[in-house]
């Protein structure tokens, strides 16, 4: 039987941090650390399920 | 302290009360924004963040804002940590990417994302000492066959659900996960979509973990560069 589970933090971060439209260019303020977080989260999420 | 406009999503320019964040409209489109201190994003712990970690709190808030808009209008969620250099920058972005963003909003309108995860069942423990060599080999063969059948079952679930969705995507698999799919489903087809999960998992003896509905996070793979 399917289970409707509450979304885990991993499911949430996978979507909010790892997905979604990306804006680049001079309209954006670079946040110290956030690019790094994206990269490292990507590494972390490969263990859980990154992009195929 | 440096401040910027945190941008959550692009949506259509409608009157939506968000109790905090607000909309910057331009030619029928709008950016959902809130003023932030950029220092809030410094030093976030990403390595196995705890439920109450600053990253988790910020990400949940981001999701809550996107969902609040999503209740009323189609959304194009922006990636976590998108901070714009003020209202002029927001207007410039909306102006430069108007057609592209409008097309993406049309594409996700009336659809919601569902996550489906299927794991392999853990095999029952066996007392190896009690097994003869032949019985052990037979058990191994039987387990390999069963694992193979479950893998094929998970793949057929993905194919069937893909047929019932507007778009689908699979994540890489790790550990005991056999299917980690995301499906963008027309709201009027959701009943059919879930009935299909029900039917297939029962038929194949699989267990599916379902998350959703989500805003279309996994289906807005777009980069608005050099706006």
From TrEMBL, chain A:
Pfam annotation, one family: Gas_vesicle
Highest rank taxon of the organism: Bacteria
Localization annotation: Gas vesicle
Keywords, ordered alphabetically: Gas vesicle
Name used for this protein in its record: Gas vesicle protein
Originating organism: Lentzea flava
From TrEMBL, chain B:
Name the UniProt record assigns to this protein: Gas vesicle protein
UniProt cross-references to InterPro entries, sorted A to Z: GvpL/GvpF (IPR009430)
Organism encoding this protein: Lentzea flava
Keywords of the record: Gas vesicle
Entry-linked Pfam families: GvpL_GvpF (PF06386)
Similarity annotation: Belongs to the gas vesicle GvpF/GvpL family.
Keyword Amino-acid biosynthesis: no
Subcellular location: Gas vesicle
């Amino acid at each position: 039987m399917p289970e409707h589970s509450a979304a885990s933090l991993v499911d949430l971060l996978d979507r909010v941090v790892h997905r979604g439209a990306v804006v680049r260019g001079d309209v954006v303020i670079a946040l110290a650390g956030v690019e790094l977080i994206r990269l490292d989260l990507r590494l972390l999420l490969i263990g859980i399920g990154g992009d195929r | 302290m440096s401040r910027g406009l945190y941008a959550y999503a692009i949506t259509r320019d409608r009157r939506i009360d968000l109790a905090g964040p607000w909309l910057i409209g331009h030619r029928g489109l709008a950016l959902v924004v809130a003023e932030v201190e950029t220092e809030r994003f410094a030093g976030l712990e990403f390595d196995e963040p705890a439920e109450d970690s600053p990253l988790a709190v910020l990400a949940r808030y981001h999701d809550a804002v996107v969902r609040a808009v999503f209740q009323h209008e189609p959304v194009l969620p922006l990636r976590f940590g998108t901070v714009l250099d003020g209202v002029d920058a927001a207007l410039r972005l909306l102006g430069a990417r108007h057609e592209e963003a409008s097309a993406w909003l049309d594409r996700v309108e009336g659809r919601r994302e569902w996550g489906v995860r299927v794991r392999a069942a853990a095999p029952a423990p066996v007392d190896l000492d009690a097994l003869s060599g032949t019985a052990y080999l037979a058990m191994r063969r039987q387990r390999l066959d069963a694992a193979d059948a479950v893998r094929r079952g998970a793949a057929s679930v993905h194919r069937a659900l893909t047929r019932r969705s507007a778009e689908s995507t699979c994540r890489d698999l790790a550990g005991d996960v056999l299917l980690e799919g995301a499906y963008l489903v027309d709201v009027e087809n959701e009943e059919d979509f879930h009935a299909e999960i029900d039917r297939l998992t029962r038929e194949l003896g699989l267990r599916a973990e379902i998350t959703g509905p989500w805003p279309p996070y996994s289906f807005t793979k777009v980069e608005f560069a050099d706006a």
